[in-house]
Amino acid sequence: MSLYGAPNTVPGLYAPGTNTQIYQPYPDLGGIGQIHYAGVSTYNSLQAKIEKRFSSGLSFLATYTWAHSLDDASDAAGNFTAIGDRNLALIPFIDEFTNSVFDVRNRVTFNGNYELPFGRGKAFLNHSSRWLDETVGGWSTSLTYAAQTGTPFTVNPNISTAAGGSARAIMVRDPFGAGGAPDPTNPSTACASKTRTKDHWYNPCAFANPLPGNLIAPVGVTPTGSNGYLYAAPVTGTQNAIAFLGGRSNVLAGPGYYGVNMSLFKNFATFREQYLQFRADAFNLLNHPTLSNPSDTSDNTNGGQITSPKTFQNNTPDARFLQLSLKYVF
Most buried among 70, 96, 250, 300, using CB within 10 Å? Predict the structure, then answer.
């Protein structure tokens, strides 16, 4: 078993458009699957909370987490796939060590619960009639606020890349700094006049291209410089591979989000400690839109364009929705 990935990974880089399967160690096989539980990961965080225990009808909990997660594997499922795998036959597995796809640097939450002081046993209308108590008593409310920074993504180059590996753009300056001039490796790119917007979450001029794959001569052709080729095929060696395949993945974080959820409860006493509870829940109460990571993650003029809301499984915080329910507690 290869230490650096699937044993049928092509061990070299070739000119764009080259059929690399014939240069794989086992060319008659389309791919070789393997299970290898391996990887390196680190998670460090500072966590703090403020809590008010329930008294006088009020309780709340506020938390803050400052964290950083890094790893060199996309998941723990044993498929031995590195994050942003450029070419594991040329670039060692550990060299893909970068921000985790789920890395969230900052997260704040607040949850508060309050029993309204009306009805029997409360500060107001304590001696009200049963019908008045059924109307105004037994109400409580809960509010939850959560906010966090965004998750990482990868910026792709704006060139014809070498066959045999996946290339990444190289960050050369602050990606959220507006204006400036395009990198010499990508002179046709228009710089963003403003960042952290739907049109340009980042400035594409903050990224450079790795070496273009068309500098590699076709198999059997000698590079002379005058014929446009500077490298003979195949290109091997870690440093040469990095020059063509660029930087690590997940170097830039997308938009964060915040959301407010609120619930309203009403308890109707039935028998002894049993009760019927009515509740109304409002998710994304403020109907605040939350943006996803950019759909155009490249260092071209449209780089950083966002076209959709952030989603969490089947739910999206981009739209407010309401829920009514009843439950019987016994």
Answer: 96
Q: How far is CA 136 from the centre of its chain?
A: 45
- List alpha helices for the chain, DSSP H: 130-136, 238-245
Across-strand partners of 194? none
CB 236 within 8 A of CB 85: no
Beta bridge partners of 216: 231
Beta carbons of 245 and 86 less than 8 angstroms apart: yes
141: tokens are 């409310």
Residue with tokens 């539980």: 37
Distances (CA, A) of 201 to 149, 157, 279, 308: 14, 16, 39, 13
User: Would you say 105 and 149 are in contact if contact means Cβ atoms under 8 Å apart?
Assistant: yes
φ, ψ of residue 244 in degrees (nearest 5): -90, -25
* pLDDT 10s digits, 284-327: 899 888 899 999 999 999 999 999 888 776 656 567 888 899 99
In angstroms, the CA 105 to CA 71 distance is 15
Q: Which positions ≥6 away from 323 have C-beta within 8 Å?
A: 280, 281, 282, 283
Distances in whole angstroms, Cα of residue 190 to Cα of each of 53, 70, 158, 197: 55, 32, 13, 16
CB contact at 8 A, 200 and 305: yes
| CA 285/CA 110 separation, integer angstroms | 15
Q: Give the SS3 label for residue 170.
A: strand
Residues 320/284, Cβ–Cβ less than 8 Å: yes
Tens digits of residue pLDDT in 242-293: 999 999 999 999 999 999 999 999 888 788 888 888 999 998 899 888 899 9
Which residues have a Cβ under 8 Å from the Cβ of 56 and sit 6 or more positions away? none
Quick one: tokens of 107? 């997260």
Using the 8-state DSSP alphabet, how is residue 181 labeled? -
- In angstroms, the CA 210 to CA 231 distance is 14
Residue whose token pair is 């009805």: 119
The residue type of 229 is Y
Q: What is the pLDDT of residues 61-108, one digit of tens each?
A: 999 999 999 998 766 554 555 666 888 889 988 888 999 999 999 999
